[in-house]
């Protein structure tokens, strides 16, 4: 198994650092270019969620990201130092007239994650939340 | 002049060329600010864009909201296949269909 670990302050610009790393690691793990794009977006959403909702933008708190390449599996664990969440809403969330009229223009991140990765799980406690994402090489899935 | 958006206007059309590669939380505010000066036909050009996340989608939705309020038409141009997939997933394409550059020739 090969592991890459990053820790960033809860400042949005550093999400780009994680995203750039995800692109390189996804390629190194043998994901197709389209799956690397899926990976970048899923990781971006997870990191932004950890910054905004987990750590509530407290720049003293860190977001940890661990990439594990294990055979044909790439597992990414994104952790925050917040107080935990009751639940994350991964339900399908799309744009419609009602939401637009209500000015409700956010909240697509968790749905996008659920649709883009092969599987995911959430472990949340008062010590923080860990979101685990997994993507598999395409040749394994076929 | 914004270093995030370059405006190109002709007739009732404005093409907003997005110059940043990332439509994300960092660039969202600068992009959304341009929605205050839309034209009856507003086109967002994504030719330089290699990444869009949900914070970016939220910024783009401000154009959708303003277009609906004003009765304007909003289009996307030069959208990558990956971003077309993402737009389809959130049903953005219903509110911001794609247009080809050649289709704008009639307005020039």
TrEMBL record, chain A:
The organism's taxonomic lineage, starting at the top: Bacteria, Bacillati, Chloroflexota, Chloroflexia, Chloroflexales
GO MF, one annotated term: protein serine/threonine kinase activity
InterPro entries assigned: Anti-sigma-factor_SerPK, HATPase_C_sf, HATPase_dom
Lipid biosynthesis listed as a keyword: no
One Pfam family here: HATPase_c_2
Keyword Membrane in annotation: no
Record keywords: Kinase, Serine/threonine-protein kinase, Transferase
Superkingdom of source: Bacteria
Protein name: Anti-sigma regulatory factor
Domain Histidine kinase/HSP90-like ATPase per the UniProt entry, residue ranges: 16-134
TrEMBL record, chain B:
Origin species: Chloroflexus islandicus
Pfam families from the UniProt entry: STAS
Superkingdom of source: Bacteria
MF (Gene Ontology): anti-sigma factor antagonist activity
Full protein name: Anti-anti-sigma factor
Domain STAS intervals: 43-108
InterPro entries associated with the record: STAS_dom, STAS_dom_sf
SUPFAM superfamilies membership: SpoIIaa-like
